[in-house]
Amino acid sequence: MKRHHFFWFFIVLFIGRLVHAAEYRFAVAPGNTLTYHANRAVNEGSNSVTHAVIVVHGTDRNADDYFDRMHKPASDAGYASKSLVLAPRFVTVDDNPRANQLYWTSAGWKKGFRAVNLNRLSSFTVVDELVQEIVERHTNLESLTLIGHSAGGQFVQRYAGLTDIDKLDSGLKIRFIAANPSSYAYLSPDRPASTGGCATFDKYKYSFRDADEALAYTTKNLEQIKALMLSRDIVVLAGERDKEVSSTLDVSCAALAQGDHRLARAENYYAYINELSKNHNHFFEIVPSVGHSSTGVFRSQVGLDETFLFDDAHRLARANRAFNRIESENPELKNGSQTKTKNLDGKIGYCRVYPETQSTVYLWTDDYIWLQLSDMDWMRLFKL
To answer: For residues 66 and 89, what is the distance between their CA atoms, to the nearest angstrom?
Structure first.
């Protein structure tokens, strides 16, 4: 290839990246701005947008990278054309903020603390206003996903218990996805590991107990937060290989009371939610062959399904993933045929019939997976 061809090739690549990771500024309040990266400006609005994704970066605050990591697989899967994909950036003083740009401490933005400057707005308040702008500007919006990885996962899990964005539009379907966070906010003093001698294990951010005192954001008490957390569509995703004790892993006594590493903490948190209530809307899934990687989570099948699918398409996607796992773990189950079904309560589900072993697997995606064999009664396998 000739030299000038190389030159134009790289120019096109560079321009393409600028278009993909366009930087915008959102006016939070008079004199306050927040930088974000998106596939279209929020204030322009669009009648074609039916779904919005807000993706929250990790501790490095690289919102442009997080936008690219989410937008590329979404575009490849055909979701981006009808979706607003947006990544806000919570800057600190180390990022040399502009005169009118909100900035936080490196630990504060993750917890919903107030900005250091200007009107000292909570980082949660900023997202509230961003969502309000999205809802007002996109009249055909049907669903909204807030997804964060690592520190962003911490942000989303805590935000899910405190925000009132569901009151902006009663018909809007909202999902919160916490991927590979280093810790969770619990709803009671129960922990899977010892809390002896740890004074902080049941304080915010490791608990919601004193969130109203810790934050200039909410007046909700613990029981109100608990009701919200159990009712909301909350997804916990954990990388199968996210077991390393890295420099970014929280190893405080409060975090270690939740488990030794991120995967264990995710498994323990979901088990805790199951013990706390049999009527919750949390969902947990391990992302196969993925470690502490936002790229790996976002481009995985479960990551795409949970971020972009709702209603019947979402139920079917969960069913297919579950059936595929069951078949991989039970090689005798093969050549199954799948149909849609309902349980006795009228819940939509799916079943796969395996004639060769005279077996049937029934699945209701917000309930339980059941296995029926020819020589045994119903057996409950596990709760999703």
So the answer is: 10
